[in-house]
Write a structure and sequence with these properties.
- The protein has 454 residues and is of the alpha+beta class.
- It has 3 domains: 2-82 and 152-338, Bira Bifunctional Protein, Domain 2 (BirA Bifunctional Protein, domain 2, 2-Layer Sandwich), CATH 3.30.930.10; 92-143; 362-453, Rossmann fold (3-Layer(aba) Sandwich).
- The protein is 32% helix and 28% strand.
- It has helices spanning 7-10, 13-22, 44-63, 80-84, 87-90, 123-129, 167-172, 174-181, 225-228, 230-245, 293-302, 328-339, 374-384, 398-408, 418-423, 444-453; strands at residues 2-4, 26-28, 40-42, 68-71, 92-97, 104-106, 140-143, 147-149, 159-161, 187-196, 211-221, 253-257, 269-277, 280-289, 308-310, 315-317, 320-327, 340-345, 348-353, 364-368, 390-392, 412-416, 425-430, 436-440.
- Helix 3 (44-63) crosses helix 12 (328-339).
- The radius of gyration is 25 Å and the shape is globular.
Length: 454
């Protein structure tokens, strides 16, 4: 048997997407009606991975810290929120249409997007190869926010928006949250929640979708502390180390500071954590030093005082902010691509997902060697279920069941055999090495706990 860690650079996207659908990680939304572009449904295994990632992020960012608190705010906010934040005026992408294929594309992506009529060419190359002039329309701006209406009557006064990011409600609730939590500067407010962007060209599976979930944290500091870069550099390191703790390969991660001409006018710095996906190196998370722009905008828009009073120094000021922002879906795609590997047995290639035990949708599978041993195996699975994400599988040969569990990323399989009836022990098989070890039932829980925490 030969095994290779395919990772992001070698795993083709179509193979990953096929595996995701076949094994119940991700399905196209509304698939029986042909799907709807930019929307995805997470299946039984996919939702487990998503929930694991959200819990690991929440533990790291909120539960294990004394200086960060959490919130969960509504998807629809007062429409003035998005006026003050600048989204109504400027949250847009450059858009062009092709007069030949009638496709609609982001103008800044036409040199990389394949033409619908000639996939071997990019949209830009196809336009140049054709008549030359007039193939593409002039660029126009397209606002990415989904518009809706609140109330029984649909008119201008009822217009509202599905939020394009979760952070603005953190800013509008800053005063309330600081007051009830009695936090002192510096401190952070974190949130996990759905966001919506009417992307011109959703692509690359779940990397760029129209409905997605974000994990964001706003860390409020004194304005003068934003000049020292201390907290900015601290959070860059914290966030980078978190991805390593998930088992993501270090050689696939990049830190890319933004050039001065990339920064928003109010930002003092921004660094992207990037990952080498099958389609290229792309942004995974952004850490931005946003000054006090956001709170200042909402103070001006609402007329409310969102400043902070420091009891120790008797200073009153509008805090600056360090923002960390990433998508749950992109993080899912990262660990999915990163875990993907292939092995070959007797000339047959098969997929393995080498998930970190804390990320894996199933942590341990209980497999009776014979259906005659079903009762004892089920009892073990029921006992372990309280401590681990477990599965019971009795269908097919033991070899096929091992392969099935390897394909969904289960790190440990426990085989209950006829010897188990006599000496109360089981065989534990490790996914990545395929090594097997005999373990007594009274030590099984501790054995698995130690392995998964290693």
């Amino acid at each position: 048997m030969t095994t290779s860690r395919a990772g992001a650079s070698r795993a083709a996207m179509d193979e990953l997407i096929s595996l995701a659908k076949r094994r119940g990680f991700v399905f196209p939304s509304s698939g029986i009606y042909g799907g709807i572009n930019g929307f995805w449904d997470f299946g039984p295994l996919g939702v487990e991975v998503k929930n694991n990632l959200k819990k690991l992020w929440w533990d790291h960012m909120v539960r294990f810290r004394s200086d960060v608190v959490g919130v969960d705010t509504s998807i629809i906010a007062h429409p003035q929120t998005w006026v003050s934040s600048g989204h109504v005026k400027s949250f847009s992408d450059p858009l062009v249409d092709c007069k030949v294929c009638k496709g609609r594309f982001r103008a800044d992506h036409i040199d990389s997007l394949p033409c619908p009529n000639k996939p071997s060419l990019t949209v830009q190359a196809c336009a140049k190869e054709g008549k030359g002039e007039g193939e593409l329309t002039d660029i126009r701006q397209f606002n990415l926010m989904f518009q809706t209406h609140v109330g029984a009557v649909q008119d201008v006064s009822s217009v509202a928006y599905l939020r394009p990011e979760t952070c603005q409600s953190i800013f509008t609730q800053f005063k309330n949250i600081q007051g009830v939590s009695r936090q002192k500067i510096p401190f952070g407010i974190a949130q996990i929640g759905k966001s919506f962007r009417n992307e011109v060209t959703p692509r690359n599976f779940i990397f760029r979708s129209r409905e997605f979930e974000q994990m964001e944290m706003e860390f409020f500091i004194k304005p003068e502390d934003s000049e020292s870069q201390k907290w900015y550099e601290y959070w860059i390191d914290q966030r980078y180390q978190w991805f390593l703790s998930l088992g993501v390969q270090k050689n696939k991660l990049r830190l890319r500071p933004h050039a001065p001409d990339e920064l928003a006018h109010y930002a003092k710095g921004c660094t992207d954590i990037e990952y080498e996906f099958p389609f290229g190196v792309s942004e995974l998370e952004g850490i931005a030093q946003r000054s006090n722009y956001d709170l200042t905008q909402h103070i001006q828009g609402s007329g409310k005082d969102l400043s902070y009073f420091d009891e120790a120094t008797k200073e009153k000021f509008v805090p600056a902010v360090i923002e960390t922002s990433l998508g749950v879906d992109r993080t899912f795609l990262t660990v999915f691509c990163d875990a993907y590997a292939e092995d070959e047995v007797d000339g047959e290639k098969r997929a393995i997902l080498r998930f970190h035990p804390q990320v894996a949708p199933i942590q341990v599978a209980i497999l009776p060697l014979s259906k005659k041993l079903k009762e004892g195996a089920i009892k073990i699975e029921e006992d372990l279920r309280r401590y681990f994400r477990s599965d019971y599988d009795e269908a097919g040969s033991i070899g096929k069941r091992y392969r099935r569990q390897d394909e969904v990323g289960t790190p440990y399989c426990v085989t209950y055999d006829f010897e188990s009836l006599e000496n109360q022990s089981v065989t534990v098989r490790e996914r990545d090495t395929t090594q097997q070890e005999r373990v007594s039932l009274d030590q099984l829980k501790n054995y698995l706990s130690d392995k998964m925490q290693a």
